[in-house]
């Protein structure tokens, strides 16, 4: 036995249970659902908020808590690229070796430290408490150490350290600073053209939460009814649009609950309106929406068709999405039909329709404002998957319209491979069709500016306040 005196043991700290903060636990659960189950934040969040309200009661979980939880989830997901670059500089191993739940907690902490006005000490201690609850004390100590390193600088300071200088590598600089995958920066820039200012404005707009925009479906609701809602202001371009300037709760609007109005970005409204307003010789009685689910544009088209005594056929390949279309169209004042059908193998005779819309499946790179996780899920290879389907749907649309009729090809992506390249390829193989200038149809609505060289139209969040919708109109000539 050794006679060296034993070092007296430090008295153990009395164990304190971690404080449970329902807002941050909810935000963590939402991030896990997005990572683990490929859930969509905008779908998973409302049900988590409802559950938290039920469990905690309105006193312990009020509107401000819901707003903070939403901001934490959306902000963390959007800024993930920037935050990962900063975390990589603060963690002593590659980020891929950090357990995903630990990384989610760290990202939430970084967002509070660098992306909100929460004071640093509160951001660190709240995140460490969260880590104690959801990860355990050991990993909470790791979270504490990493966040203390992050807290040594502000966002600008970190960006100077972790982003390459713009002059050395412009795309990587923008990717890190504005938190977009590099290939997405590159594609958006190709489509937008212009210099640094333009692309930076677009990338910044992608990181802002869009206003909620409503559509008053013609013949069913008027904008004056929607304008009576708190903080409601008229839309910028569409005569049917009303914006809820302070976010608002669309579910609380009677006209939305009754299906007389809907939630719809103005870019989508403009696409439907431009197709409906394209000049046509001869009959204007049968319209087709060949990719209708979940039914936003179909509902507007059906209401416009009803005003003219025309009928809309809304086709959707997926049965459950056809159900959503049926719900969106229920109560339409004129005749309509919803069918489950593959738009590339038409269940109708060629030349049956006067107007046809194909709002084709795409990467959705034009709606990044709305889907904060989408930019990290998409891969350049997705373009190859969509390419044949997009071409097939446009080709069938052209076969489905009568001679003299008009087809609208729309995407909520501005990627050149999904827009102009598709239209150019299909028109090459379909000699009986010619482009129609879509610009005057939009400019005629309320002077939508900056519509480019035509004949097609690309809308942009930073220029038009809409999603980056693309529209090409094509007339069948023989
Ligand atoms: C971009 S979304 C359409 C959005 C819709 N226009 C709206 O405004 O609500 C594309 C839709 O096309 C559907 N789709 C995919 N392949 C299809 C096909 N071969 N035929 C018909 N619909 C298809 C998808 O299921 C999806 O619902």
Automatic annotation (TrEMBL):
Active site: 412 (nucleophile)
Alphabetical list of InterPro entries matching this protein: MeTrfase_RsmB-F_NOP2_cat, MeTrfase_RsmB-F_NOP2_dom, NusB-like_sf, NusB_RsmB_TIM44, RCMT, RsmB/NOL1/NOP2-like_CS, SAM-dependent_MTases_sf
Zinc is among the record's keywords: no
Keywords (A to Z) from UniProt: Methyltransferase, RNA-binding, S-adenosyl-L-methionine, Transferase
Domain SAM-dependent MTase RsmB/NOP-type: 188-477
PROSITE patterns: NOL1_NOP2_SUN, SAM_MT_RSMB_NOP
Residues engaged in binding S-adenosyl-L-methionine: 291-297, 316, 342, 359
Biased composition (Basic residues): 7-19
Disordered: region residues: 1-20
SUPFAM superfamilies: NusB-like (SSF48013), S-adenosyl-L-methionine-dependent methyltransferases (SSF53335)
Family: Belongs to the class I-like SAM-binding methyltransferase superfamily. RsmB/NOP family.
UniProt protein name: Transcription antitermination factor NusB
Naturally occurring in which organism (per UniProt): Streptomyces thermogriseus
């Amino acid at each position: 036995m050794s006679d060296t005196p034993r070092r007296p043991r430090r008295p153990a700290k009395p164990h304190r249970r971690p404080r449970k903060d329902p807002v941050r636990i909810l935000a963590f659960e939402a991030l896990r659902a997005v990572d683990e189950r490929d859930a969509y934040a905008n779908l998973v969040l409302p049900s988590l908020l409802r559950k938290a309200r039920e469990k905690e009661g309105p006193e312990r979980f009020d509107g401000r808590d819901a707003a903070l939880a939403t901001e934490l989830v959306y902000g963390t997901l959007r800024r993930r690229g920037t935050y990962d670059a900063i975390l990589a500089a603060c963690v002593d191993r590659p980020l891929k070796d950090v357990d995903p739940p630990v990384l989610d907690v760290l990202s939430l902490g970084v967002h509070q430290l660098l992306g909100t006005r929460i004071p640093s000490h509160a951001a660190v201690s709240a995140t460490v408490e969260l880590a104690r609850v959801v990860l355990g004390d050991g990993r909470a100590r790791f979270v504490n150490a990493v966040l203390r390193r992050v807290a040594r600088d502000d966002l600008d300071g970190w960006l100077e350290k972790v982003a390459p200088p713009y002059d050395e590598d412009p795309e990587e600089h923008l990717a890190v600073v504005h938190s977009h995958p590099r290939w997405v920066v590159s594609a958006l820039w190709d489509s937008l053209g212009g210099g640094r200012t333009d692309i930076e404005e677009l990338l910044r707009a992608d990181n802002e939460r869009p206003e909620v925009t409503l559509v008053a479906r013609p013949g069913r609701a008027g904008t004056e009814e929607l304008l009576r809602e708190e903080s409601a202001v008229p839309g910028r371009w569409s005569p049917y649009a009303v914006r809820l300037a302070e976010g608002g709760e669309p579910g609380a609007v009677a006209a939305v609950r009754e299906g007389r109005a809907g939630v719809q970005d103005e870019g989508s409204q403009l696409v439907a309106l431009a197709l409906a307003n394209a000049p046509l010789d001869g009959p204007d009685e049968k319209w087709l929406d060949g990719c209708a689910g979940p039914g936003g544009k179909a509902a507007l088209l059906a209401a416009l068709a009803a005003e003219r005594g025309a009928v809309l056929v809304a086709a959707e390949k997926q049965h459950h999405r056809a159900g959503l279309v049926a719900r969106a169209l229920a109560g339409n004042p004129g005749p309509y039909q919803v069918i489950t059908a593959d738009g590339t193998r038409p269940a109708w005779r060629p030349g049956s329709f006067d107007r046809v819309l194909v709002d084709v499946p795409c990467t959705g790179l034009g709606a990044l404002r709305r889907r904060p996780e989408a930019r990290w899920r998409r891969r350049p290879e997705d373009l190859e998957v969509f390419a044949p389907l997009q071409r097939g749907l446009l080709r069938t649309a052209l076969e489905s319209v009568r001679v003299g009729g008009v087809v609208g090809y729309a995407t909520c992506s501005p990627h050149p491979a999904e827009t102009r390249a598709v239209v150019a390829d299909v028109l090459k193989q379909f000699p009986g069709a010619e482009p129609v200038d879509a610009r005057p149809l939009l400019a005629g609505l309320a002077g939508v500016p900056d519509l480019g060289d035509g004949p097609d139209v690309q809308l942009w969040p930073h220029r038009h306040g809409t999603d980056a919708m693309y529209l090409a109109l094509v007339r069948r000539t023989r």
